[in-house]
Amino acid sequence: MLQIDGVSKTFFTNTVNERVALHDISVRLGAGEFVTVIGSNGAGKSTLLNITSGKLRPDTGTVRIDDKDVTRLADHQRAKYLGRVFQDPMAGTAPHMTIEENLAIALERGRFRGLRRGVTNAKRARFREELATLELGLENRLGAKVGMLSGGQRQALSLLMATFSEPDILLLDEHTAALDPQRAELVSRLTAELVERHHLSTLMVTHNMEQALRLGSRLIMMHEGQVVLDLDAERKKRATVADLLGAFEKIKGAALDDRTLLQ
Ligand SMILES: Nc1ncnc2c1ncn2[C@@H]1O[C@H](COP(=O)(O)OP(=O)(O)OP(=O)(O)O)[C@@H](O)[C@H]1O
Q1: For the ABC transporter domain, which residue ranges apply (predicted)?
Q2: CA distances from 214 to 33, 46, 106, 188 (A)
Q3: Could you tell me the distance, in angstroms and rounded to a whole number, from the CA of residue 208 to the centre of ligand 1?
Protein backbone atom coordinates (compact mmCIF):
# COMPACT_ATOMS: atom_id res chain seq x y z
CA MET A 1 0.00 0.00 0.00
CA LEU A 2 1.31 3.42 -0.99
CA GLN A 3 0.27 6.77 0.48
CA ILE A 4 1.61 9.95 -1.10
CA ASP A 5 0.25 12.89 0.85
CA GLY A 6 0.55 16.59 0.04
CA VAL A 7 3.77 16.20 -1.93
CA SER A 8 5.25 19.22 -3.69
CA LYS A 9 8.49 19.45 -5.65
CA THR A 10 10.02 22.48 -7.34
CA PHE A 11 13.29 22.45 -9.25
CA PHE A 12 15.62 25.47 -9.35
CA THR A 13 13.52 27.37 -6.80
CA ASN A 14 13.76 31.17 -7.00
CA THR A 15 15.67 31.20 -10.27
CA VAL A 16 14.55 32.02 -13.80
CA ASN A 17 14.55 28.26 -14.46
CA GLU A 18 12.12 27.47 -11.62
CA ARG A 19 9.88 24.48 -12.47
CA VAL A 20 7.03 23.32 -10.29
CA ALA A 21 7.00 19.57 -10.99
CA LEU A 22 4.48 18.50 -8.33
CA HIS A 23 1.99 20.75 -6.62
CA ASP A 24 0.50 19.42 -3.37
CA ILE A 25 -0.28 16.03 -4.86
CA SER A 26 -1.89 13.16 -2.96
CA VAL A 27 -2.20 9.64 -4.40
CA ARG A 28 -3.17 6.53 -2.46
CA LEU A 29 -2.85 3.00 -3.76
CA GLY A 30 -4.58 0.11 -2.06
CA ALA A 31 -3.02 -3.36 -1.90
CA GLY A 32 -3.02 -4.91 -5.37
CA GLU A 33 -4.30 -1.74 -7.03
CA PHE A 34 -2.86 -1.19 -10.53
CA VAL A 35 -2.96 2.48 -11.51
CA THR A 36 -2.02 3.72 -14.96
CA VAL A 37 -0.76 7.31 -15.12
CA ILE A 38 -1.08 9.52 -18.20
CA GLY A 39 -0.46 13.22 -18.80
CA SER A 40 1.26 15.69 -21.07
CA ASN A 41 5.03 16.25 -21.23
CA GLY A 42 6.29 17.85 -18.05
CA ALA A 43 3.11 16.96 -16.11
CA GLY A 44 5.21 15.50 -13.27
CA LYS A 45 4.76 11.76 -13.89
CA SER A 46 8.45 10.79 -13.66
CA THR A 47 8.93 13.09 -10.68
CA LEU A 48 6.08 11.27 -8.92
CA LEU A 49 7.81 7.92 -9.54
CA ASN A 50 11.20 9.32 -8.51
CA ILE A 51 9.76 10.64 -5.25
CA THR A 52 8.10 7.28 -4.60
CA SER A 53 11.37 5.41 -5.22
CA GLY A 54 13.45 7.84 -3.12
CA LYS A 55 15.54 9.05 -6.05
CA LEU A 56 14.19 12.52 -5.25
CA ARG A 57 13.16 14.07 -1.93
CA PRO A 58 9.92 16.07 -1.86
CA ASP A 59 9.99 19.70 -0.64
CA THR A 60 6.87 19.04 1.42
CA GLY A 61 4.58 16.08 2.07
CA THR A 62 5.09 12.45 2.99
CA VAL A 63 5.48 9.07 1.32
CA ARG A 64 4.37 5.98 3.22
CA ILE A 65 4.76 2.37 2.10
CA ASP A 66 2.74 -0.18 4.07
CA ASP A 67 2.20 2.46 6.77
CA LYS A 68 5.92 3.07 7.17
CA ASP A 69 7.04 6.65 6.61
CA VAL A 70 9.83 6.38 4.02
CA THR A 71 9.96 10.08 3.07
CA ARG A 72 13.47 10.52 4.45
CA LEU A 73 14.83 7.13 3.37
CA ALA A 74 17.35 7.21 0.53
CA ASP A 75 16.63 5.15 -2.58
CA HIS A 76 18.93 2.25 -1.62
CA GLN A 77 17.20 2.02 1.78
CA ARG A 78 13.81 1.86 0.08
CA ALA A 79 14.88 -0.59 -2.62
CA LYS A 80 13.62 -3.59 -0.67
CA TYR A 81 10.05 -2.29 -0.88
CA LEU A 82 10.14 -1.46 -4.57
CA GLY A 83 10.50 -2.94 -8.02
CA ARG A 84 11.05 -0.60 -10.94
CA VAL A 85 11.27 -1.01 -14.71
CA PHE A 86 12.52 1.89 -16.83
CA GLN A 87 11.91 2.86 -20.45
CA ASP A 88 15.42 1.82 -21.49
CA PRO A 89 15.61 -1.99 -21.80
CA MET A 90 19.34 -1.73 -20.99
CA ALA A 91 18.69 -0.10 -17.60
CA GLY A 92 17.25 -2.96 -15.56
CA THR A 93 19.78 -5.74 -16.15
CA ALA A 94 23.57 -6.25 -16.09
CA PRO A 95 24.68 -7.09 -19.67
CA HIS A 96 27.96 -8.83 -18.81
CA MET A 97 26.31 -11.22 -16.38
CA THR A 98 24.32 -14.29 -17.30
CA ILE A 99 20.54 -14.58 -17.06
CA GLU A 100 20.82 -16.72 -13.91
CA GLU A 101 23.30 -14.31 -12.26
CA ASN A 102 20.97 -11.40 -12.93
CA LEU A 103 18.05 -13.33 -11.49
CA ALA A 104 20.08 -14.35 -8.42
CA ILE A 105 20.85 -10.70 -7.66
CA ALA A 106 17.20 -9.73 -8.10
CA LEU A 107 16.13 -12.55 -5.82
CA GLU A 108 18.59 -11.43 -3.15
CA ARG A 109 16.87 -8.05 -2.96
CA GLY A 110 13.58 -7.66 -1.16
CA ARG A 111 12.28 -10.39 1.03
CA PHE A 112 14.77 -13.05 0.06
CA ARG A 113 17.80 -11.31 1.51
CA GLY A 114 18.61 -14.33 3.70
CA LEU A 115 19.61 -16.30 0.64
CA ARG A 116 23.15 -16.19 -0.66
CA ARG A 117 23.88 -14.87 -4.11
CA GLY A 118 25.27 -18.19 -5.42
CA VAL A 119 23.07 -20.05 -7.87
CA THR A 120 21.98 -23.30 -6.27
CA ASN A 121 20.11 -26.05 -8.08
CA ALA A 122 16.96 -25.13 -6.16
CA LYS A 123 17.19 -21.53 -7.33
CA ARG A 124 17.97 -22.65 -10.87
CA ALA A 125 14.81 -24.74 -10.91
CA ARG A 126 12.80 -21.76 -9.75
CA PHE A 127 14.39 -19.48 -12.38
CA ARG A 128 13.53 -22.00 -15.11
CA GLU A 129 9.96 -22.16 -13.93
CA GLU A 130 9.60 -18.36 -13.78
CA LEU A 131 11.31 -17.82 -17.14
CA ALA A 132 9.08 -20.40 -18.81
CA THR A 133 6.07 -18.18 -18.03
CA LEU A 134 7.55 -15.52 -20.34
CA GLU A 135 7.26 -17.96 -23.26
CA LEU A 136 10.47 -16.66 -24.82
CA GLY A 137 12.56 -19.83 -24.42
CA LEU A 138 14.87 -18.10 -21.91
CA GLU A 139 14.48 -21.01 -19.47
CA ASN A 140 16.88 -22.94 -21.70
CA ARG A 141 19.46 -20.13 -21.79
CA LEU A 142 20.28 -19.56 -18.11
CA GLY A 143 24.01 -19.32 -18.86
CA ALA A 144 23.64 -16.78 -21.73
CA LYS A 145 24.94 -13.25 -21.19
CA VAL A 146 22.05 -10.79 -20.91
CA GLY A 147 23.78 -8.40 -23.34
CA MET A 148 23.05 -10.96 -26.08
CA LEU A 149 19.27 -10.67 -25.66
CA SER A 150 16.98 -8.46 -27.75
CA GLY A 151 15.44 -5.31 -26.24
CA GLY A 152 12.07 -7.03 -25.81
CA GLN A 153 13.63 -10.09 -24.15
CA ARG A 154 15.66 -7.86 -21.81
CA GLN A 155 12.61 -5.84 -20.88
CA ALA A 156 10.62 -9.01 -20.17
CA LEU A 157 13.51 -10.20 -17.97
CA SER A 158 13.67 -6.79 -16.19
CA LEU A 159 9.96 -7.09 -15.48
CA LEU A 160 10.37 -10.58 -14.08
CA MET A 161 13.29 -9.44 -11.94
CA ALA A 162 11.34 -6.45 -10.63
CA THR A 163 8.35 -8.58 -9.66
CA PHE A 164 9.45 -11.95 -8.41
CA SER A 165 10.66 -10.81 -5.00
CA GLU A 166 7.06 -9.51 -4.63
CA PRO A 167 7.81 -5.85 -3.85
CA ASP A 168 5.24 -3.77 -1.99
CA ILE A 169 5.16 -1.32 -4.89
CA LEU A 170 5.93 -1.83 -8.58
CA LEU A 171 6.88 1.27 -10.59
CA LEU A 172 6.74 1.08 -14.38
CA ASP A 173 8.15 4.12 -16.15
CA GLU A 174 7.04 3.98 -19.81
CA HIS A 175 8.51 0.50 -19.83
CA THR A 176 7.09 -0.47 -23.24
CA ALA A 177 7.75 2.85 -25.03
CA ALA A 178 11.11 1.88 -26.56
CA LEU A 179 9.88 -1.47 -27.96
CA ASP A 180 8.40 -2.25 -31.36
CA PRO A 181 4.60 -2.80 -31.30
CA GLN A 182 4.82 -6.60 -31.15
CA ARG A 183 7.32 -6.62 -28.25
CA ALA A 184 5.41 -3.84 -26.51
CA GLU A 185 2.31 -6.00 -26.73
CA LEU A 186 4.18 -8.98 -25.25
CA VAL A 187 5.57 -6.92 -22.35
CA SER A 188 2.10 -5.40 -21.74
CA ARG A 189 0.59 -8.89 -21.53
CA LEU A 190 3.35 -10.05 -19.16
CA THR A 191 2.82 -6.96 -17.02
CA ALA A 192 -0.88 -7.74 -16.58
CA GLU A 193 -0.10 -11.38 -15.75
CA LEU A 194 2.70 -10.70 -13.26
CA VAL A 195 0.85 -7.90 -11.45
CA GLU A 196 -2.19 -10.14 -11.11
CA ARG A 197 -0.20 -13.24 -10.07
CA HIS A 198 1.77 -11.42 -7.36
CA HIS A 199 -1.10 -9.06 -6.45
CA LEU A 200 1.26 -6.05 -6.74
CA SER A 201 0.35 -2.43 -6.03
CA THR A 202 1.48 -0.81 -9.26
CA LEU A 203 1.99 2.67 -10.72
CA MET A 204 2.52 2.58 -14.49
CA VAL A 205 3.37 5.71 -16.46
CA THR A 206 2.53 5.57 -20.16
CA HIS A 207 1.97 7.93 -23.06
CA ASN A 208 -0.16 5.31 -24.76
CA MET A 209 -3.77 6.06 -23.81
CA GLU A 210 -5.11 2.87 -25.28
CA GLN A 211 -2.67 0.91 -23.11
CA ALA A 212 -3.56 3.04 -20.08
CA LEU A 213 -7.22 2.11 -20.56
CA ARG A 214 -6.60 -1.57 -21.25
CA LEU A 215 -4.23 -2.27 -18.35
CA GLY A 216 -4.82 -1.73 -14.66
CA SER A 217 -7.76 -1.15 -12.34
CA ARG A 218 -7.64 2.65 -12.12
CA LEU A 219 -6.40 5.54 -14.27
CA ILE A 220 -5.12 8.95 -13.27
CA MET A 221 -4.35 11.87 -15.53
CA MET A 222 -1.79 14.45 -14.43
CA HIS A 223 -1.38 18.02 -15.60
CA GLU A 224 0.97 20.68 -14.28
CA GLY A 225 1.96 18.68 -11.22
CA GLN A 226 -1.55 17.75 -10.12
CA VAL A 227 -4.00 14.88 -10.56
CA VAL A 228 -6.75 16.24 -12.79
CA LEU A 229 -8.71 13.05 -13.47
CA ASP A 230 -9.05 9.85 -11.43
CA LEU A 231 -11.10 7.03 -12.97
CA ASP A 232 -12.04 4.00 -10.89
CA ALA A 233 -12.32 0.53 -12.48
CA GLU A 234 -15.96 1.01 -13.54
CA ARG A 235 -15.47 4.42 -15.15
CA LYS A 236 -12.21 3.29 -16.74
CA LYS A 237 -13.91 0.28 -18.31
CA ARG A 238 -16.43 2.54 -20.03
CA ALA A 239 -13.94 5.27 -21.07
CA THR A 240 -12.47 5.61 -24.58
CA VAL A 241 -9.36 7.35 -25.88
CA ALA A 242 -11.66 10.07 -27.25
CA ASP A 243 -13.08 10.58 -23.73
CA LEU A 244 -9.55 11.00 -22.32
CA LEU A 245 -8.60 13.47 -25.04
CA GLY A 246 -11.85 15.36 -24.45
CA ALA A 247 -11.19 15.50 -20.70
CA PHE A 248 -7.67 16.77 -21.32
CA GLU A 249 -8.83 19.48 -23.72
CA LYS A 250 -11.39 20.60 -21.18
CA ILE A 251 -8.78 20.79 -18.42
CA LYS A 252 -6.34 22.71 -20.58
CA GLY A 253 -9.17 25.02 -21.66
CA ALA A 254 -10.20 25.62 -18.05
CA ALA A 255 -6.62 26.43 -17.11
CA LEU A 256 -6.45 28.92 -19.97
CA ASP A 257 -9.75 30.47 -18.98
CA ASP A 258 -8.50 30.81 -15.41
CA ARG A 259 -5.40 32.60 -16.60
CA THR A 260 -7.49 34.83 -18.84
CA LEU A 261 -9.71 35.69 -15.91
CA LEU A 262 -6.71 36.60 -13.79
CA GLN A 263 -5.29 38.99 -16.38
N1 LIG B 1 16.05 16.76 -12.45
C2 LIG B 1 15.36 17.84 -12.85
N3 LIG B 1 15.89 19.06 -12.84
C4 LIG B 1 15.20 20.13 -13.22
N5 LIG B 1 13.92 20.11 -13.64
C6 LIG B 1 13.32 18.92 -13.69
C7 LIG B 1 14.00 17.71 -13.30
N8 LIG B 1 13.14 16.68 -13.44
C9 LIG B 1 11.98 17.19 -13.89
N10 LIG B 1 12.09 18.54 -14.04
C11 LIG B 1 11.01 19.45 -14.49
O12 LIG B 1 9.85 19.14 -13.73
C13 LIG B 1 8.70 19.14 -14.55
C14 LIG B 1 8.05 17.76 -14.51
O15 LIG B 1 8.91 16.84 -15.18
P16 LIG B 1 8.64 15.26 -15.26
O17 LIG B 1 9.83 14.67 -15.93
O18 LIG B 1 8.25 14.77 -13.92
O19 LIG B 1 7.37 15.22 -16.22
P20 LIG B 1 6.74 13.98 -17.02
O21 LIG B 1 5.27 14.08 -16.83
O22 LIG B 1 7.41 12.73 -16.62
O23 LIG B 1 7.11 14.39 -18.50
P24 LIG B 1 7.43 13.48 -19.78
O25 LIG B 1 6.14 12.83 -20.17
O26 LIG B 1 7.88 14.49 -20.77
O27 LIG B 1 8.50 12.51 -19.39
C28 LIG B 1 9.15 19.57 -15.93
O29 LIG B 1 8.95 20.96 -16.03
C30 LIG B 1 10.63 19.24 -15.95
O31 LIG B 1 11.32 20.12 -16.79
Answers
A1: 2-249
A2: 14, 21, 28, 10
A3: 18
